[in-house]
Amino acid sequence: MQPFISIGPFTVQAQPFVILAGFVLASIIANKRAGRFGLNADFVGNMVFYAALVGLAAARLGYVLLNLSAYAREPLSAFAPSVSALSSFTGIPAALGFGVWYARRKRIFGWALADALAIPALVFAAALALGTWFDGSVFGTATPLPWAANVWGEMRHPMQVYEIVLTFALALALWRAKKPSGQAALLALAGYAFIRVFVDGFRADDVSLVLGLRATQLLFLALGIGALWVWAERRAKTQGGASL
Amino acid sequence: MKAIRILIALAAVLGLAWIFISRPQPATVQQGAPAAQAIGPQNVPVLGPSRPTAPRAGAFAPNFALKTLDGKTLSLSDLKGKVVIVNFWATWCPPCRAEMPALQAAQAEHEAQGLVVVGVNQLEDVSLVKAFQQASDYSLNFVLDSDGKTARAYNVAGLPTSFFINREGVIEHAEYGGAMTRALIESKLAPMLSQ
């Protein structure tokens, strides 16, 4: 855990910095991959950028609405630059909703777009994982294994390392895909979901439980199986689609 | 297609098996940790092997015992049962000064509900801090981190930094940087005060 990173004379908050850097990298990759799947790179780049802005605004608006009694007394505080006053419950759906709306408007909505965004999404997911390492919000169970990481005086599973390595391996495996059939996107989704089923098994921080099992693992397993099922169905329909 | 369906079914079975094998085991907190380091209860069942003592949300707040401006000692462990904001600050730090009225107002409003704001001054002389307090008429609990040891225990790399600690001694929120607005402070405090 390291909440700050110092770069020369500047000290920045590590988690927002890593997430922002991950977003920039993911945007660059999305731009590059758009052409590969026959899409207008400008449209894809703009969609990602505007969706992020809309998501950020909606995340703040959601936070303010959830804490209305606090903000009603001083409404201008809603514009104060604090990264902790954001709600993902409104931010993420708003960003996704805007992205879909924009893509439809620009006529780029479809499997090709999903394929173009598959690897950028994996890169961004890895950045989010790295962010949780820096802010210490997610940490592994204790283990005597030689590659354990010292977190607060206890040797623990470096679960973010597992997640990032596996996610990058998945991204590399899908890198060569170029057929805009949705296969890269569905395999990325399924692969990432199975990675989370595996990695979350080492989580020691508080998570919701269902019948004594971690809810996140169950959700990701359902998501992974669902994505794999759709992938198989589509593959069967477009016979000979074994190659990506 | 049949082979793929079998593979998907296999993935589901293996996934469920792993979820079951890796399910969290109830355990007790930090059995080996000295009580002085953690201010929370020592035998509360939590997920995983332990809830650590660390300067992050979800962990027990590291304890400290620091001198107040009138020479007494204020220890975080004495404040168990209270909601505590530990605010690292210095008189030379503009955003620290900017957020202090909001902290003062929060303490004044919620004192009866058990809110205590502890202003941990960084490396400044007691006379300077006293002069600041008198000039501004703040009634916050100022303490002196004269050697910076407490700031290091809390991983403080910039001022201001504030930790919102619940009645069990667990950090609910860490706010890096400032200045915090009154609304932000209230939004973080509301669920803690109602517990």
Furnish the topology, listing elements before pairings.
The complex is a heterodimer of chains A (244) and B (195).
Chain A: E1 4-7, E2 10-13, H1 14-36, H2 41-66, H3 68-72, H4 88-105, H5 111-135, E3 149-151, E4 154-156, H6 159-174, H7 183-199, E5 209-210, E6 213-214, H8 215-237
Chain B: H1 2-21, E1 65-68, E2 73-75, E3 83-89, H2 94-110, E4 115-122, H3 126-136, E5 141-145, H4 149-153, E6 161-165, E7 171-176, H5 182-193
Parallel strand pairs in B: 3-4, 4-5
Antiparallel strand pairs in B: 1-2, 1-5, 3-6, 6-7
Key structural traits:
heterodimer, A: 244 residues, mainly alpha, two-stranded antiparallel ribbon, two-stranded antiparallel sheet, 7% strand, B: 195 residues, alpha/beta, 7-stranded mixed beta sheet, 7 strands
Walkthrough of the structure:
The complex is a heterodimer of chains A (244) and B (195). Chain A has eight helices and six strands; from the N terminus they run E-E-H-H-H-H-H-E-E-H-H-E-E-H. Chain A is mostly helical and 244 residues long. Chain A has a domain of 139 residues. In chain A, a hairpin with a 2-residue loop joins strand 5 and strand 6. Chain A is globular, with a radius of gyration of 20 Å. Chain B has 195 residues and is of the alpha/beta class. A seven-stranded mixed sheet of chain B has the order 2-1-5-4-3-6-7. In chain B, helix 2 crosses helix 5. Chains A and B meet through helix 3, helix 7, strand 6 and helix 8 of A and helix 1, strand 7 and helix 5 of B.
